[in-house]
Amino acid sequence: MTRKSAVPPTPSPGRARAALAAVVSTTLLLTSACAVANSGGGGDAGSADGDTLRIVLGQEPPTLEPCESSLTSTGVVVRSNITEPLVERDPTTGELLPLLATGWEQSQEDPTTWTFDIRDGVTFQNGEPFTAEDAAFTIDRAVNSDLACNVDGYVFGDMELEATATSDTRLTVTTGEADPILPLRLSFVEIVPRTTSTEAKVREPVGTGPYAVAAWQTGVSITLRRNEEYWGEAPAYATARYVWRSESSVRAAMIERGEADIATAIDPEDATEGNSVPYPNNETTALRLDGTEAPLDDIRVRRAISLAIDRDGIVDTLFDGEADPAAQLVPSGVVGFNDELSPTPYDPEAARALVEEAAADGVPVDRRITLIARNSQFPRVAETAEALQYELAEIGLNVRIRMTDTAAHLQYQLRPFPEDAGPIALLIMHGNQAGDAAFTASQYLLSEGPQSTFGTPDLDRRIAEADARSGPDRQDAFADVLSYQDETVAQYAYLAHMRGLLGLAPTVEYEPDPATGDEMRLAEVRPAGDARAGDEG
Fold first, then answer.
1. Are 164 and 136 in contact (CB under 8 A)?
2. d(CA 417, CA 462)
């Protein structure tokens, strides 16, 4: 028995686009009516004396522990400000650049071993000299300890790793198997002194960066002071002060009223040419479809969902054009990005036909699918969920929305997933900070990946083979992995490669890049008109 009688007529693309706008217009009117009367902070964002850089974040960092700096809310304060890695990645070109290591080389005789030359003459903010022994200690602490560091699971997984200082300026790192991208992985390890605790994560870290922690008033602010003994170029500001306000409108208003110099994550409706600048932020939004539960276990239904999404309409109507329709989980600039893939065309008629075909074969297409999204996941996330619900209903699927907080969303995002939850379409936003598709594939595409609901043995094999390659072969192999995923697994219905909006006062000069949302380098911020601002690059 088919369920065709329960399916409403298919709208034309033009009518669907108009309906999409109608679905979200009421909600947008309600949310935009909440004007900012008071930032709640007055002048507490910091002094406007010209020597303090004032930053307002969307939330207070949960920790400043360096081994957790791959978390966006921690990394935006810690990475390359308080602490530094051996190697840094240029977020625009992907090139690996020397930092605390001046060079590195993979052994030709034993490709499991890498040697790093450690920069001489660097001191930590507590006055202790930085040596290869500190680098070896930090790597061991982040990867091999019981601290359960985020960088361990995200970057290194189950990798065997041994770091040894052979002299003050020489470090060797040995892996269980040859790893062609070890220097890239180590760019996520922020170096700390060997006196740092290995029993507990630290609250106020010590590093080699241009700023040191001066004070952290829980719930109020974090203040950094310039490291006068910094080995590199001195930053322009003597002090940097972070506060946090959860509402985008408040953060934008603080820029406009001169209470902040930089504000993260401005929503499109709060942005003006005078208070913010757009930038590509490495984030990709998508629906992750649980292929273990009917009706999502049928690839026809998963493909129908992708065909039903009007990406151009969502980008234009909800994201104010500050995004690009996506055809894969990684954006351009990431090793493995497949420039031959195109976004699935909006074709509700073809989508409906696939759903009807599945229904005719007994697939329970009327079974309720729960679309889970996280509050404040990205601007207008609730309206995006409503648009998706409407579009999927138009092709005959039964979808309800569940908006969650971060903790509840993580239960569905990471294994082990909740039992007996039924079919789930999870709205995700994935940022590939590392610039290599291996980090996406290991998390989101492997059959048992921490953020994957299913896969295939053949896809797993292809991922493993791609991860063993280097250079152009690696690019081609991961491009094939991303194409094969779409053709044979179709776990994801992609939405858009996002662009962020950074609040920026006219008193400062700063050029945001794709890493800004995860790592805002304060040393690159200059007062407007500072001659040094044009000297770099």
1. yes
2. 25
Residue given tokens 């499109």 in the structure block: 268
Q: Where are the beta strands (DSSP E) in 66-186?
A: 87-89, 96-98, 101-106, 113-118, 161-167, 170-175
Contact partners, residue 534, CB within 8 Å, separation at least 6: none
Q: State the chain's mean pLDDT as an integer.
A: 90
Measure the CA–CA gap between 192 and 135, rounded to whole angstroms.
8
Of residues 2 and 349, the one with the higher pLDDT is 349
Q: Rounded distance, CA 55 to CA 262, Å?
A: 5
d(CA 453, CA 421): 13
Rounded Cα–Cα distance for residues 432 and 330 (Å) = 7
Give 453's DSSP letter.
S
The predicted structure's pLDDT at residue 37: 33
Q: Are β-strands 96-98 and 87-89 bridged in parallel, bridged antiparallel, or unpaired?
A: antiparallel
pLDDT at residue 20, as a whole number: 58
* Residues counted in the chain: 537
User: What confidence tens digit (pLDDT) does each residue in 88-116 have?
Assistant: 999 888 899 999 999 999 999 999 999 99
355 vs 361: CA distance, rounded Å: 10
The token duo for 344 is 């699935």
Which amino acid is located at 99 in the chain? Answer: L
| Residue that has been written with the tokens 């030359």 in this structure | 117
Closest by CA position to 178, among listed 126, 112, 243: 112
Q: With CA atoms as reference, report the closest residue to 59 among 42, 83, 76, 47.
A: 76
Question: What is the distance between the alpha carbons of residues 430 and 128, in angstroms, rounded to a whole number?
Answer: 38
Handedness of CA 217, 252, 530, 47 (dihedral sign): negative
Provide the whole-model pTM: 0.78
**Do 72 and 197 touch, CB atoms closer than 8 A?**
no
